[in-house]
User: Fold this.
Amino acid sequence: MKRLFITLLILSLMLVGCGSVRITHSEFMMDTVISYDVTHSSADSLIAHCSEITAAAEDLFSAYSETSAVSEFNNSDKLIIEDIPELYDTLRIASEVYEISDGAFDITVFPLVRLWNVTHSEDDWTPPTDDEILSLMPDVGMDKLMFDSYQLTRAPYESKTEIDLGGIAKGYTLGKCAEYLTENNAIGTVSFGGNIALVGNKEDGSAWKVGIKNPFSPDTFIGTLSLDSGIVSVSGSYERYTEYDGVRYHHIIDPKTGYPAESDLASVAVWMREADAYNGAYADALSTALFVMGHDAALELYKPYSDFEAVLIKNDGTVTLTDGLTARYTSYEE
Assistant:
């Protein structure tokens, strides 16, 4: 698979003390810009290893690569996954979020995402017809998949169901990189597009500041979160979209309707307190699920759980914070 590695910036090789250096580096992988800001005596080699982790994940998870494990499943009856623990882990987490969100997050929407083609739309793009959408709906639903640590198969007679792990794989891979950096006592941040991991404690003891983009003016921030650690994942309708006859169509498909989600939310940010693969995947999938569910249903899902926090930005500009973020959020209007 041909990858585009673009070194956008090497900002500094700054002595930080105790032989450590701070390196910032960016590259393009997994269809997004990945940015590192890492302090460690071997920061360059740690970043290089994270790039290897990400390249391997791209080879495994990409639904658009003919040689990936995901594509192998989509083009066959079953996939043996006993030697692919990363795939089993992401399927298990995807299934968890599918269940608790009542299907708002669903990895089987891939045929609909491909049909809409919002992200890769051309100048002559037109929305798919109702009949085209309806023809794909019978194959949507994670209940049409069966898997364990040995194999992934389709439920009997569900021969057309396909999967796309794009809504969870970036968070999972980010978490794997964060785990590796933590094991090596590095300090810094790693950003995979709308996902960011906070690794270690800043040397001055202050909290990490994570900016929350203003979905109505994405070049600005609506506020900041002060966090000690963890992973933040953001989903919204403002970055990947196309327009037709004055109507905006974003990339997040509602599995229940087959259309871009008609949510009253413009953006959702989910914070998980630990920076590891499980929490990265969970945050990535959950931010999508909450966006699809909408404001009130998202808060209802939050009530029984204490392992995540969220910032919900409604289409009218209202910002709602879950309990664990009220003291950590600073609005830019304050």
Residues 1-17 have pLDDT under 50 and may be disordered. The chain has eight helices and 17 strands.
